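#structure-requests
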Amino acid sequence: MLAREAQAAKKRLLKLRADTKKAIEAAKREVAQATEAAKSAARFEKQAAKDKLAAKKAKAAGAKKATRKVAAKVAPRKAAAGTKASPKAAPQVAVKAVPKKRAAARKVAPTVAATDASV
């Protein structure tokens, strides 16, 4: 009777060991799967960050091109506006020309005074 109990205990122990081994193997598989999933998620996030940065750079480059195009369109308009505003520009040129004439008159005056003094 004691031998039968010992045999049964031994059988239970062997079964427990087998169950433990199976549980350990299953846990190892789960850990490996979780690790692979984490690595995959990290790769995905890294790629998403690269894509986002590339999209941001492309958007910035597109904005620069757009501003260049707008500037290219606006420049002829400004030039055309400048030709329309030429009557306004003419008085400014005339104002600038007047001081030059005065400066020339001042230069002439001392020479005339010098000739008067010498006579």
